[in-house]
Amino acid sequence: MRWIIRLAVLAVIVVAAGLWLTRPQSDAPDVLAGLTPDPVHGETVFAAAGCASCHMAPEAEDDAKLVLAGGQSFPSPFGTFKAPNISTDPEAGIGDWAAIDLWNALHHGTSPEGQHYYPVLPYGAYIHMEPQDVVDLHAYMQTLPADPTPSQAHEVAFPYNLRAGVGAWKMLFHDEEWVMDGDLSPELVRGRMLVEGMGHCAECHTPRNALGGLETGAAWLSGAPNPAGRGSFPDLTPPEMSWSEDELVEYFTSGFTPEFDTAGGHMALVVENLATLPEDDRAAIAAYIKALPISE
């Protein structure tokens, strides 16, 4: 009987230690202290991060895309996730969030209530954003319209509905390491921020392991199946990606490929966002892609 009690106590200790190690992380407001918000730059961050593409209402058009009412579905092997309302409505959306709340969501994947967000919010990429970027993004988002549409619940079954497990996932896959590293030119540094960070390109274009973590190394941006089960996302590495830098910049600007095809599906929304960025940013993304190693 004493051995049973000891094993039970040990099990409780192990579980408690695991929960403590995988608890949601957050930063205090002083991480953003002294920063002056620039909503004009925040609009650029908003476009580069593709916020409206995921959080606009389904089938929204034109200015309605800036009403971030949520509701789009994102099927995956782990369940179907629903984009939440992130409009300025203080009850249905995030209108009462301070900049530090947005920082903790994007940097740590932690809600203001201290819960893990599922990594369908690509904080694995957004962790690279600078504090100034987030402060500016918050300032711009405060200028957007409010909408009272309630967020829809995710359709996620056991065991993936246990958010405590997300903490273990973060321990394995959530860090600030860059994939492209070394002595990079200023253009490649900016391209890396836009591709690996704000633009979260790898979320679609990189294959995942059985736990949903992104593969790095030779598999980085080498193409991946669509998690919704329809088709796949293309390989961006050479020799598969043979477009020149100028051709890539043209694609990011107009959506036209060198073969006179046009961007479709979700990529059309990505191009729509990229076209609003400064041309230097589109050139930096192209330079990053052309600097990728040959996939094996």
TrEMBL record:
InterPro entries assigned to the protein according to its UniProt record, in alphabetical order: Cyt_c-like_dom, Cyt_c-like_dom_sf, Cytochrome_c-type_DH
Example of a GO MF term: heme binding
Cited Pfam families: Cytochrom_C (PF00034)
Keyword Iron carried by entry: yes
Record organism: Maritimibacter harenae
Keywords: Heme, Iron, Metal-binding
Domain of life: Bacteria
Span of domain Cytochrome c: 37-145, 186-293
Lineage: Bacteria, Pseudomonadati, Pseudomonadota, Alphaproteobacteria, Rhodobacterales
Protein name per the record: C-type cytochrome
